[in-house]
Amino acid sequence: MIQNRESFRETLRSVPLIFTVVPLRDSKTGDPEHDNRIVKNIESRIMEISHTLSDFPKLTAVNVPELVEENHEGKPRYNSIYTRKLAKGIADGIGREAIINKVVAHMESYDEFANWIIETESQGIRNIVLVGGNTRHHRYTGPNVSEANLIARHLMKIKELDDLTIGNICLPERSGEARRMLYKTISGADFFTTQMLFESDHITHLLKEYSELCKKAEVSPATVILSFAPLKSVADLNLLDFLGVDLPDETKDYILENEQVSRVYKRSIKNALDVLQVIVKDRKENYPEISIGINVEQLTKSNMPYSIEMLREFHSMIEKK
Question: What CATH number has the domain spanning 8-319?
Answer without folding.
Answer: 3.20.20.220
